[in-house]
Amino acid sequence: MTFGQVLLVAVLAVPALGAVAVAAIPRDRAARLVGTAAAALTLLAAVPLVFGGRGWVAWSADGPAVRPWHQLDLQWVPGLELRFHLGVDGISWPLVVLTALLTLLCCAYTMWRVPGGGSGRALVALLLVVEVGILGTFLALDLVLFFLFFEVVLLPMYAIIAGWGGTDRRRAARKFALYTLFGSVLLLVGVYVVVAAAGTADVVALTGGAGMSRGTQLAAFTLLALAFAVKSPLWPLHSWLPDAHTQAPTVGSVVLAGVLLKMGTYGLIRVAVGVAPEGARWAAPALGVLAVAAILVGSLVCLAQSDVKRLIAYSSVGHMGFVLLGVATLTTTGIQAALIGNVAHGVITGLLFFLAGAVKDRTGTGALAELSGLRETAPRLAGLLAFAAIASLGLPGLAGFWGEAFAVIAAVQVGGPLWTTLGVLAAVGGALTAAYFLRLLRQVTHNRPSPAVGQVGPGLAGAELTAWVPLVLLALAIGLAPALVLGVAEAPVDALIGVVLP
User: Of 349, 323, 301, which is closest to residue 404 (Cα–Cα)?
Assistant: First the structure.
C-alpha cells in the first residue's frame, strides 16, 4: 500500500477503533480523553492527504472527471461486483479536514463540559461513529458504499439529540430520523436505478452519465436530488432542521450544522450532478428557484425568531440556499461558490453554535427577549459572538463572503431573465441576512444587562478558547485567502463541468 492509501484507511479506521475503545473503557474521563486523542489522530491523517499524487499535469478533457489524488480500490462483494473504493480529491478534501477538525473540537469540548442526559463516554463514542459515517461519505467512490456510509450517521445522531438534548429532544430526534429515512429511501432507489442501468456502481466510471439514456438520467437525478435536498436541507424539506438544532446539545448542533448538512450538498455535486448530468441540466432552473426560495424564506423567518439557536438554525437554511444556487448554475464559478460556501458555513456556523451554547449555559436561557447587555458583563464573549455573526452575514474579508458573492455572480453570468432575477433576489436575501444578524447583536449585546445576563462573569474557560480560536482563525484565513479552498478544487471542478456541459 502507498502512503496515501494508508492515510485513507487511517482516516476511517482511527475514529472507528477510537469509538470501540471509548465504549470499552469504564472510567468516563479517561474514555473521553482517549476519544479526543483518536479524533486528533484522525485530523493528523486527513491533512497530509493533500500532498502527493495530485497529478495536475495529467488532467485533460479526455480523462475521467474524477481522478483522485489517492485511492484505494479493493474487492468487496465479488459476486455483486461491488468494491471497497475510497478516494480523495480537491472537492472532498476540504470537507474531510473540516469534519475531522470539528469532531476534534467537539470531543475536546466534552473534556470540560458534558451536557446532562447521559455519560460523556457514550457521547464521545457516538461523535466518533458519526465522524466515520461522514468521512466515509466524502471518501466513497462506490455508490453502494456511499449509501452505507450515508446511513451510518442516522442512528448515532438520533441518539445524541434524544439522549443529551433539550426538553423537547425526543420529538426533535424522531422528526430528524423520519425525514432522514425518507431521504434514505429515495437515495437507495436512485442508486438502484443508476447501478441497474449502467451495470456498475463505480463513481469514477459513472461520472458523465456512463451512456445512460436521457430518461434514466432524469429519473435518477430526481430521486438523488430529492434525497440530498432532505439532508441539505432545501426548502420546503427543511422543517426537521430548526427543531433538531434547537434541541441538540452544543456539540451535536456543531456537528449537525458544521458537516452533516454538507453530506447533502456534496452528494448533490459528486453523485447527482456528476452521475446524471442530463438530469442536472433539465432540473437546474427548478433547483435554482427552490434555492432562492430557501434564501428568502430562511432570512424572513430569522427576522421573526425569538430564540438564539433557532435563529442560527434557520440561517443555515438560507446559507445552504446560496450553496444550492451555485450548484444549480452548473458553472465553474457556481460549483466553486458551493464548495467554499460549504466550508465557510461549517466553520462559521460551528462557531456560532458553540457561542450560542455558551450564552445559554451561562444565562440559562436562549430567548432573545431575556438577553441584553452581554457586552457589559462578558465583553469577550460578546465580541466573539459579534465576529461570528458578521462573518456569517458575509462581510468581505471573512469566510462567509465568497460563497454568497460567487453564487450571485454565477447566476448573473448564466444570464437570461430567470437567472438574472434569481441572482438579484439572492442578493436581496444577502441583505436580509445582514438585517437579522444585526438584530441579533443589537438584542443580545447592547442595552442594559437583563437579569439573566447580569449574573454572567467576564471570564472564558480555557477549553472554550481551545474550541473557538481555531474556527476564528479559519474564518479569517479563508476570508483573506480563498485559494486555500478554491485552489485545490480548481482542477476537479473544471473536469466535472467538462462532462456536465460537454
Answer: 323
